[in-house]
């Protein structure tokens, strides 16, 4: 209800509220009313000036009407429509009120103007402003009546008919303009209110739908959800929380705190968590256990702050029953401990098995090393004795027998070498070197090794390789590459009774990283059936068991070749048909090298000259190898002394002056490695070349020799040429590689 005090308050007017119809729609009103006022002002001034009976003071209100019109238009241009209309209403009211005091004869139109102004003010300025003007008008009428009754103001002469007519026309025009404008404003207000009503109804419907969706969303959560204000009072909860609290509807919890719906201890715990979240501004997750229907129930609770404009205004959270999960976790923990115990037991068993396997591997390695020594040592004597006998033999039959014995010894040596290579591969002790070499040199060495057998069988041996490929300098393992080629070519020669054996080298790819090569060995031999082509790459197998009796061989060459090719990152295969020959192929990628310089070959005479007159110590416990090696050394012009064990070798080096020491590794009393270390500690021992000559054929045996201080390594059985090459290298002033045999 509007009180008297409210009349003097300053609430916003309808124009201020409905700003969409304020400024643009008032412009026609202002211009129309200003035009009427200017025309009326001019007409009144003209009538007053031209009428001889009209009082001249009436020029002032006439001029004031025109001046007010100009001021209103100026305010409109400067401040806008609303201040201009307010000035028009207030100025018009003041002008009509003052004129009414002295306007005898025009008081009726002035009062009509008052009525129009009050109606217009009620819309434009609001009901309170209209009430103020009405009270002021009442006071003015009372004052005017009192002044006339008591004679405080002398009455003016009645205005002339022309002035009255003009005043009525002006008032009528203003009334028409105001009435039309009020009709327009009422229509605009009606449309605005209708539109606003529709928008409000739409917003309310949307809010109601959103609330229903939110309620449905909250109630469909399978766990308890809540929203609290900054006083930790519930603002909204879902049905699950209401059911848990024993309430029929979520609305029954709104406005309550946790202390109103939960046991005191649990409520205090959750309230403390809410306080921490509000104080720290960070979410928290806790797990608590409570008793529900006499059984322990675990709940996981999450609480997070709700912020608005950077200020925490409450918290939001959820809680869910995790009792089943806790049971599963406890069960998993028990299983984990049980499995950990089993793992420890199995680990212990695996460690025992691993130690046993390592012990077995060490025993196998030791056995192979011993077998290598025991086999290669007599083989060295056999091959050496045969070579020495061949030099002295003159009878053709004797020479033939010695040649056959030499071939048989070398065949046995090949079998032993294959078995040892396979054992290295299986023990993962076969390493692939990376050195620089010329590809053509490997092929030259291959030709030198197979040329005699090819000529003995009357076969043609052809090598197809482009000159630029033969001149390639690459990085890889030339020894293993030569071993693979020798195995494939040897097999081709073995299984080809007539015709030809060919070797082709093709370049498949060439880029900045290296060159991809394909080697093909083709023969016109017996061929291999398709069903047997996979078996030939297995250890100890050939395509047909009867071939072993006819052609011989251990069946290890292709298996070793396959392992070596794969270790070099390539592939190997065969294409063959029975009685149509075979083509064995393999690929390998090698890096390019542009810095390699081939060693200058050294002739046998140059090597003999480097050895002549030198004094060497041979440390060897096997009598036959002592004889063979000494005979070879004496053939080179080297005077040799013999030591039967490592300790004797130490004493002889300490007392004598030797240019070279040839040291076996497996010696009685003191082994060769320890003897080499002791010699290196002697004042003169550091400068004596020490060469290991041993039947141990593993790659790590060579490294062990170098680590013990030895200079080089020569594996048994060795030939006279290989012994000459290594001794000449270390006895010569400028050691160089021997010429190709």
Could you explain the architecture of this structure?
The strands form three sheets. Strands 6, 7, 8, 9, 10, 11 and 12 form a seven-stranded mixed sheet that branches. The chain is of the alpha/beta class and 741 residues long. It has 22 helices and 17 strands. Strand 11 and strand 12 (582-592) form a beta hairpin.
In short:
This protein has helices at 14-17, 23-50, 59-79, 81-102, 107-124, 127-149, 161-220, 239-244, 264-280, 323-392, 396-426, 439-457, 467-470, 478-494, 545-551, 557-567, 604-611, 623-635, 646-655, 672-681, 699-707, 720-731, and strands spanning 224-229, 234-237, 284-292, 295-308, 311-321, 435-438, 460-465, 473-476, 500-510, 515-523, 572-576, 582-592, 615-619, 639-643, 660-663, 690-694, 712-715. It has 741 residues and is an alpha/beta fold. Strands 6, 7, 8, 9, 10, 11 and 12 form a 7-stranded mixed sheet that branches. It has a 5-stranded antiparallel sheet with strand order 2-1-5-4-3, with helices on both faces.
Note the topology.
Layout: H1 14-17, H2 23-50, H3 59-79, H4 81-102, H5 107-124, H6 127-149, H7 161-220, E1 224-229, E2 234-237, H8 239-244, H9 264-280, E3 284-292, E4 295-308, E5 311-321, H10 323-392, H11 396-426, E6 435-438, H12 439-457, E7 460-465, H13 467-470, E8 473-476, H14 478-494, E9 500-510, E10 515-523, H15 545-551, H16 557-567, E11 572-576, E12 582-592, H17 604-611, E13 615-619, H18 623-635, E14 639-643, H19 646-655, E15 660-663, H20 672-681, E16 690-694, H21 699-707, E17 712-715, H22 720-731
Parallel strand pairs: 7-9, 13-14, 13-15, 15-16, 16-17
Antiparallel strand pairs: 1-2, 1-5, 3-4, 4-5, 6-8, 8-12, 9-10, 10-12, 11-12
């Amino acid at each position: 209800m509007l009180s008297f005090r409210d009349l003097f308050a300053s609430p916003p007017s309808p124009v201020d509220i409905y700003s969409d119809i304020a400024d643009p729609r008032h412009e026609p009103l202002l211009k129309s009313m200003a035009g009427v006022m200017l025309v009326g002002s001019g007409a009144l001034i003209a009538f007053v000036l031209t009428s001889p009976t009209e009082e001249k003071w009436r020029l002032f209100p006439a001029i004031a009407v025109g001046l007010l019109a100009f001021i209103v238009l100026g305010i409109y241009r400067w401040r806008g429509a609303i201040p201009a209309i307010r000035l028009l209403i207030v100025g018009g009211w003041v002008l009509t009120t003052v004129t009414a005091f002295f306007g005898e004869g025009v008081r009726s139109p002035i009062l009509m103007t008052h009525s129009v102004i009050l109606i217009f003010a009620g819309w434009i300025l609001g009901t309170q402003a209209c009430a103020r003007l009405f009270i002021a008008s009442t006071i003015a009428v009372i004052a005017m009546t009192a002044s006339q009754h008591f004679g405080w103001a002398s009455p003016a002469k009645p205005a002339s008919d022309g002035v009255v007519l003009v005043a009525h026309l002006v008032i009528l025009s203003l009334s028409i303009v105001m009435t039309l404008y009020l009709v327009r404003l009422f229509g605009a207000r009606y449309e605005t209110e209708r539109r606003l009503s529709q928008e409000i109804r739409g917003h309310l419907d949307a809010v109601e739908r959103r609330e229903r969706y939110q309620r449905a969303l909250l109630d469909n959560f399978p766990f308890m959800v809540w929203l609290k204000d900054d006083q930790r009072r519930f603002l909204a909860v879902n049905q699950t929380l209401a059911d848990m609290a024993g309430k029929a509807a979520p609305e029954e919890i709104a406005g309550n705190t946790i202390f109103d719906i939960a046991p005191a201890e649990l409520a205090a715990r959750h309230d403390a968590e809410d306080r921490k979240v509000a104080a720290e501004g960070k979410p928290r997750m806790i797990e608590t256990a409570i008793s529900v229907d006499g059984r322990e129930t675990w709940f996981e609770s999450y609480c997070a702050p709700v912020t608005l404009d950077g200020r925490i205004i409450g918290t939001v959270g959820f809680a869910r029953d995790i009792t089943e999960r806790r049971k599963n976790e406890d069960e998993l923990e028990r299983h984990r401990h049980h499995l950990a115990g089993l793992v420890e037991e199995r680990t212990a068993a695996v460690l025992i098995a691993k130690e046993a396997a390592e012990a077995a591997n060490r025993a196998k390695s030791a056995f192979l090393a011993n077998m290598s020594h025991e086999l290669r040592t007599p083989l060295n004597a056999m091959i050496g004795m045969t070579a020495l006998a061949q030099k002295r033999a003159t009878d053709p039959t004797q020479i033939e027998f010695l040649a056959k014995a030499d071939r048989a010894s070398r065949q046995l040596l090949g079998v032993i070498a294959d078995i040892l290579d396979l054992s290295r591969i299986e023990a993962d002790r076969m390493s692939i070197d990376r050195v620089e070499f010329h590809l053509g040199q490997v092929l030259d060495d291959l030709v030198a090794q197979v040329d005699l057998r090819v000529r003995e069988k009357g076969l043609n041996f052809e090598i197809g390789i482009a000159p630029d490929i033969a001149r390639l300098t690459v990085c890889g393992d030339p020894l293993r590459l030569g071993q693979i080629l020798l195995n494939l070519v040897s097999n081709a020669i073995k299984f080809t009774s007539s015709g030809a054996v060919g070797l082709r080298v093709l370049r498949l790819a060439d880029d900045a990283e290296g060159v991809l090569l394909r080697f093909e060995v083709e023969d016109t031999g017996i061929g291999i059936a398709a069903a047997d082509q996979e078996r030939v790459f297995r250890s100890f197998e050939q395509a047909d068991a009867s071939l072993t009796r006819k052609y011989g061989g251990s069946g290890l060459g292709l298996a070793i070749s396959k392992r070596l090719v794969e270790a070099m990152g390539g592939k190997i295969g065969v294409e063959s048909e029975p009685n149509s020959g075979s083509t064995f192929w393999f690929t390998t990628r090698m890096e390019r090298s542009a810095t390699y310089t081939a060693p200058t070959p050294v002739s046998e005479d140059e090597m003999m000259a480097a050895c002549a007159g030198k004094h060497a110590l041979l440390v060897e416990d096997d009598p036959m190898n002592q004889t063979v090696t000494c005979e070879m050394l004496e053939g080179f012009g080297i005077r040799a002394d013999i030591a039967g064990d490592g300790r004797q070798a130490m004493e002889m080096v300490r007392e004598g002056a030797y240019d070279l020491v040839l040291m076996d590794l497996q010696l009685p009393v003191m082994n060769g490695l320890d003897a080499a270390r002791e010699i290196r500690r002697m004042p003169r021992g550091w400068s004596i070349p020490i060469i290991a000559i041993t039947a141990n054929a593993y790659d790590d045996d060579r490294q062990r020799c170098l680590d013990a201080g030895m200079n080089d390594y020569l594996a048994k059985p060795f030939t006279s040429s290989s012994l000459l090459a290594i001794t000449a290298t270390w006895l010569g002033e400028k050691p160089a590689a021997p010429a190709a045999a």
